[in-house]
């Protein structure tokens, strides 16, 4: 679990940081006023990252920075002023970055920097470089930014690793490598990994005219000339990953239902089509429809109905956390369950139906119970429309048999299993 330590002795600044952190950081945060408090917290807690003031009343010579770094906590420094000596001193100490406290925007930048670094944790990066020293230096810098780092000593090895490990999101590749150079590697990688899926930063110490433009035209997101400053490396990597993350956020936003936050019908259909092509005969699709939902809208208004839908979405998310859950219509939802046996799938959804009926929903001060009807079909047809047709037929049967029921369709024989009610 991620946890952040923020050390700041100014009450005003700490209040600002608390406010900004509550808006932008969804992690546990401990605040400290002094070196003494920091020591006590570090003794009993493990921190993913620290944001600390350079000087404190009881630590005027960056002792708190030395403390967090000695505990192997990646550290971002807050400072009210900076000169070349102090800057160099901090970088030599091994801080991730520093932020100058000169206005409110700098505090927002610091919190967003922390947020970006936390997002890097668990993210995989690959360094492709034939120089062991270069790889070691870049590995150290990337690990400070919380990346999980892999290494390749030439382009061919890097290409093999990228094909085997789809979770690698950042590639740093040198130009001059044996067997396959950086240009050839980038071109080969872009045949199966797009710019929205993998960020690439080209590297070279050759100084050849037009090298940066060539790298970017071949598919790199950015380019760095060796030798580079630590700060420049940090900024380029962070900026490149921020662009990748923004694209991911936009895509996720486009795939989500605006009200419930579940996946929308378009994404659900796209994913189901892909899964059916690769073979998901071991799974069952369930369509769930709220019973008498129009009466809720008529009695409590559409805002009341929206409130019920968001509560239903949360109940589905909690109950089927490992499944593809989607809102596919007004009050209709879909769940793809990894269960081959239709009877077992039916039993699972019948348990959910009972849980659903017992759940107390709320609209403002009003409390009410709702029920749901469920139709289930095995994913044993090549197209989504066929699977949906059988699940829809089972759902219709559940409604016809008095609602608040779960019905499974034996799709191959086009029969309906005996429905299960309370």
The shape is flat
Top CATH class of the largest domain: Alpha Beta
Output the CATH topology of the largest domain: Alpha-Beta Plaits
Average residue pLDDT: 91
Strand percent estimate: 15-25%
Catalytic activity: 2 GTP = 3',3'-c-di-GMP + 2 diphosphate
Keywords: Nucleotidyltransferase, Phosphoprotein, Transferase
Protein name: diguanylate cyclase
Domain GGDEF: 281-411
Compact summary:
This is diguanylate cyclase. Helix content is 47%, strand content 21%. The chain contains 14 helices and 18 strands.
How would you describe the overall organization of this protein?
The chain has helices spanning 11-24, 35-44, 63-70, 84-93, 104-120, 132-144, 155-164, 182-189, 211-218, 230-255, 265-278, 293-319, 342-358, 384-400; strands at residues 3-7, 28-32, 49-53, 75-79, 97-100, 124-128, 148-152, 168-174, 199-204, 222-225, 284-290, 324-327, 332-337, 361-363, 366-368, 372-378, 406-410, 415-416. The protein has 422 residues and is an alpha/beta fold. The protein has three domains: 3-119, 3-Layer(aba) Sandwich (Rossmann fold); 122-252, 3-Layer(aba) Sandwich (Rossmann fold); 265-416, Alpha-Beta Plaits. The strands form four sheets. A six-stranded mixed sheet has the order 12-13-11-16-17-18, with helices on both faces. Strand 9 (199-204), helix 9 (211-218) and strand 10 form a beta-alpha-beta unit. The longest helix has 27 residues, at 293-319. It is flat.
């Amino acid at each position: 679990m991620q946890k952040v330590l923020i050390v700041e002795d100014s009450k005003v600044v700490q209040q600002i940081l608390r406010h900004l952190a509550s808006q932008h950081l969804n992690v546990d945060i401990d605040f400290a006023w002094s070196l003494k408090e920091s020591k006590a917290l570090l003794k009993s807690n493990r921190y993913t990252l620290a944001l600390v003031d350079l000087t404190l009343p009881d630590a005027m010579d960056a002792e708190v920075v030395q403390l967090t770094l000695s505990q192997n906590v990646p550290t971002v420094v807050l400072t009210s002023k900076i000169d070349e000596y102090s800057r160099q001193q901090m970088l030599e100490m091994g801080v991730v970055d520093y932020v100058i406290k000169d206005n409110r925007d700098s505090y927002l930048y610091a919190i967003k920097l922390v947020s970006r670094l936390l997002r890097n944790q668990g993210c995989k990066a690959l360094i492709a470089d034939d120089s062991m020293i270069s790889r070691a230096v870049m590995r150290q810098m990337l690990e400070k930014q919380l990346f999980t780092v892999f290494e390749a000593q030439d382009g061919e090895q890097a290409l093999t690793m990228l094909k085997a490990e789809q979770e690698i999101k950042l590639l740093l590749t040198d130009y001059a490598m044996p067997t396959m150079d950086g240009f050839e590697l980038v071109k080969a990688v872009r045949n199966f990994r797009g710019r929205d899926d993998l960020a690439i930063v080209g590297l070279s110490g050759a100084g050849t005219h037009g090298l940066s433009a060539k790298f970017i035209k071949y598919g790199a997101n950015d380019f760095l000339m060796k030798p580079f400053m630590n700060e420049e490396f940090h900024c380029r990597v962070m900026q490149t990953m921020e662009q990748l993350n923004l694209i991911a956020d936009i895509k996720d936003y486009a795939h989500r239902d605006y009200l419930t936050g579940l996946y929308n019908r378009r994404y659900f259909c796209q994913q189901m089509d892909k899964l059916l092509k690769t073979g998901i005969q071991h799974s069952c699709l369930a369509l769930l429809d709220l019973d008498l939902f129009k009466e809720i809208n008529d009695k409590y208004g559409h805002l009341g109905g929206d409130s019920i839908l968001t509560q239903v979405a949360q109940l589905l998310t909690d109950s089927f956390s490992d499944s593809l859950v989607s809102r596919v219509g007004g009050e209709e939802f879909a769940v793809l369950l990894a269960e081959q046996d239709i009877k077992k799938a039916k039993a699972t959804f019948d348990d959910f139906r009972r849980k659903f009926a017992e759940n107390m929903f709320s609209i403002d001060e009003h409390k009410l119970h709702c029920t749901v009807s469920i139709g289930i079909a095995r994913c044993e047809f090549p197209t989504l429309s066929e699977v949906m047709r059988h699940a829809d037929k089972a759902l219709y049967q559940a409604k016809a048999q008095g609602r608040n029921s779960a019905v499974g369709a034996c799709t191959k024989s086009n029969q309906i299993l005996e429905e299960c009610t309370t």
